[in-house]
């Protein structure tokens, strides 16, 4: 173990894991769609790190924009303003879904969701939030409370805000209601209607329009419009968490655009600066912003609207446009999806391949007929070996990094990815899936 790794393990925490056995890879360089470790080995970044380096590594225009502003105004308290605060706000009005007209700038997706939940509760005067089980909205008290996955389990007794009610997910491959689309009539959305009819004091429904870490779940086309109609009818706000699905990742500026849905609040982060600097955004409707004209806005941070983060976002938006990356995500996403499905069809361990744009999941199963997963959340919680991690480890041996979570791989390369990069990643996946194939029930001893 080299000194950098040794001191990292000795003095810092590895997140969302038991600490024993952690040995992080020492990275020394990164450019484009690749990064390099201390031994000189080069890896294809097939998940854009945490689905955030959308522009690829070391985009010179973003770097220069930050350097220029660092020389000019390295910090301002948020009570002041500067050129990039106004410039970024004007650009956001142009590209966000219609109706979102006022913004709060923070430093992460977690903080963006904290702000959204606080705003929703104050604006409506109500406290409860409806979220979904296959979701991740952040690691601080309110955002963790609306997180449905195992990251809430450890902390919910000591570090969450009460008042969340969880709804079923539009996860058609393993429907929580044991139904089949389209015969189901999108019953998972109707269930939210039922909840709102019998559960009072609800301020908002928060959803990832395309679920991120928990499976890149693309809802049926009727789902988001139906959910929007239901929330409006009940006078409840709709919060779209686009921390991971925004910024061209799904082939639109924001995933809600696929269904022409206008949320009351939209949160995002990650790709807003291509993760070069930490920036979160909470965008609200004009109706919500009007409320705070004459009511106290009880929120703020030292690093709110930090000039360097805003400069990075302005430059990133310019790069998305200059490189035509939204359209490119759609085109390259079609190729990536085609290649992934070709590989999936060859392997008995692949249950479903699904996605939009350059945002895909390879969902594993030990039995294609029953759709039983190899592992479930409690396995991750307990630290049991996960089959999907073994597949990801095999891909790393071949120089391809891909993010794994419980029972699926998240394939989300930078939006600048080339076909030859996609081919390299898919070929590594094809080879690595043999590890899972050997563990299917058909092949089990």
From TrEMBL:
GO cellular component, one term: cytosol
Similarity section: Belongs to the class-III pyridoxal-phosphate-dependent aminotransferase family.
Coiled coil stretches, renumbered: none
Gene Ontology terms for molecular function: pyridoxal phosphate binding; transaminase activity
UniProt keyword terms in alphabetical order: Aminotransferase, Pyridoxal phosphate, Transferase
Keyword check for Transferase: yes
Protein species of origin: Caldiarchaeum subterraneum
Protein name in the entry: Aspartate aminotransferase family protein
Cofactor(s) needed by this chain: pyridoxal 5'-phosphate
């Amino acid at each position: 173990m080299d000194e950098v790794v040794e001191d990292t393990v000795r003095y810092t925490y590895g997140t969302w894991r038991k600490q024993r056995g952690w040995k992080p890879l020492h990275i020394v360089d990164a450019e484009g769609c690749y990064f390099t470790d201390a031994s000189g080995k080069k890896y294809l970044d097939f998940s854009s790190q945490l689905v955030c380096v959308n522009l690829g590594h070391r985009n010179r225009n973003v770097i220069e924009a930050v350097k220029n502003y660092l020389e000019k105004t390295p910090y301002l308290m948020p009570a002041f303003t500067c050129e990039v605060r106004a410039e970024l706000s004007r650009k956001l009005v142009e590209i966000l879904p219609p109706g979102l007209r006022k913004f709060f700038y923070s430093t992460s997706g977690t903080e963006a969701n904290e702000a959204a939940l606080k705003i929703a509760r104050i604006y409506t005067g109500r406290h409860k939030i409806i979220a979904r089980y296959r979701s991740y909205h952040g690691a601080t008290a309110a955002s963790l409370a609306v997180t449905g996955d195992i990251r809430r389990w450890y902390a919910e007794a000591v570090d969450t805000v009460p008042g969340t009610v969880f709804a079923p997910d539009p996860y058609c491959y393993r429907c929580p209601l044991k139904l089949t689309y389209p015969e189901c009539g999108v019953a998972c959305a109707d269930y939210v209607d039922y909840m709102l009819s019998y559960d009072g004091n609800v301020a908002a429904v928060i959803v990832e329009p395309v679920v991120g870490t928990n499976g890149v779940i693309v809802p049926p086309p009727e789902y988001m419009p139906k959910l929007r109609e239901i929330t409006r009818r009940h006078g409840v706000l709709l919060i779209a968490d686009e921390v991971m699905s925004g910024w061209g990742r799904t082939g639109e500026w924001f995933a809600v655009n696929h269904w022409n849905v206008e949320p009351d609040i939209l949160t995002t982060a990650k790709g807003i600066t291509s993760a070069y600097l930490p920036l979160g955004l909470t965008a609200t409707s004009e109706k919500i912003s009007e409320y705070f004209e004459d009511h106290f806005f009880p929120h703020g941070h030292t690093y709110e609207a930090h000039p360097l983060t805003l400069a990075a976002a302005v430059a990133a938006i310019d790069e998305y446009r200059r490189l035509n990356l939204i359209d490119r995500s759609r085109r390259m996403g079609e190729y990536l999806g085609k290649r992934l499905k070709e590989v999936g069809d060859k392997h008995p361990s692949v249950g479903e391949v699904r996605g939009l744009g350059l945002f895909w999941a390879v969902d594993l199963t030990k039995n294609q007929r029953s759709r039983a997963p190899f592992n479930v959340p409690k396995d991750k919680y307990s630290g049991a070996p996960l089959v999907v991690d073994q597949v990801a480890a095999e891909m790393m041996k071949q120089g391809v990094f891909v993010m794994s979570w419980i029972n699926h791989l998240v394939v989300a390369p930078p939006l600048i990815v080339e076909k030859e990069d996609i081919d390299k990643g898919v070929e590594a996946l094809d080879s690595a899936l043999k590890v899972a194939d050997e563990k299917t029930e058909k092949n089990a001893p």
